[in-house]
């Protein structure tokens, strides 16, 4: 698998975090993450695609319309470092961060770890 394929997988994964319906989110996650994936960020650590589905749903409830843009991508040895920007539902910059991803033999993510300052909820 080349870096272009890994970037495509990462972009599919990021799209799953956007304001989409549950069926589309599940379809995107099935394409991009292993069933037993591990996800961590400053506020959570979860295992499995179903738990990731729930985590993403919580994010969309707390920050409706939030979505990502990938800013840069570095890759080697089945691992990637991704710099990204998250936008709120109005398209304003919401938070920036970096994520580390590890890809399995089938090209899907087996681990995703996000690094960012936790944003405050909109009230």
Plain-language structure description:
- By secondary structure, the protein is an alpha+beta fold.
- It has three helices and six strands; from the N terminus they run H-H-E-E-H-E-E-E-E.
- Strand 3 (67-76) and strand 4 (79-87) form a beta hairpin.
- The chain has helices at residues 3-16, 22-32, 49-62; strands at residues 33-41, 44-47, 67-76, 79-87, 93-103, 109-116.
- A six-stranded mixed β-sheet has the order 2-1-6-5-4-3.
- It has one domain: Roll (Nuclear Transport Factor 2, Chain: A), CATH 3.10.450.
- Helix 1 runs antiparallel to helix 2.
Predict the CATH topology: Nuclear Transport Factor 2, Chain: A
Helix/strand order: HHEEHEEEE
The SS-based structural class is alpha+beta
- Low-pLDDT sequence parts: none
Distance between the termini: 44 Å
Shape: globular
Please indicate the percent range of residues in DSSP E strands (runs of 2 or more): 35-45%
Main sheet record: 6 strands, mixed
Question: According to CATH, what is the class?
Answer: Alpha Beta
Mean pLDDT: 93
Number of helices: 3
As laid out across the biggest beta sheet, the strand order is 2-1-6-5-4-3
Query: What is the number of domains?
Result: 1
What's the β-strand tally?
A: 6
Supply the key terms.
single chain, 123 residues, alpha+beta, Nuclear Transport Factor 2, Chain: A, six-stranded mixed beta sheet, 3 helices
